[in-house]
Amino acid sequence: MTETNLVPVTQERLMTVVERVIEYPAVNGEGDLLTANLVDLNINSITFIKLVIEMEKEFDIEFEDDDLDISRFPTFQGIAQFVAEKLASSRRQL
After folding, report:
1. How far apart are CA 13 and CA 9, in angstroms?
2. Residue 73 predicted with pLDDT over 80
3. Residues 6 or more apart from 15 whose CB is under 8 A from it?
4. What are the chain's domains?
């Protein structure tokens, strides 16, 4: 499975994580959740770290310290792309 093919699967699994961490009805408004700005969804640094912890468990990846800056990921789509790249990188190392 190529990195491009990983993105849709990663997005789907990421939304499952989001539903677990965030009160889903609070972010289930109109529009596309993947492309919504995290700040507009009231995702603060504490919630972001909770998401990171759950993503590390779900995808068996590790975010580096430099990756823990919420401003690097303005949308869930950006996070999904990052996770897909991490997954593709870890598969290349096997």
Report:
1. 6
2. yes
3. 33, 34, 76
4. 3-93 (1.10.1200.10)
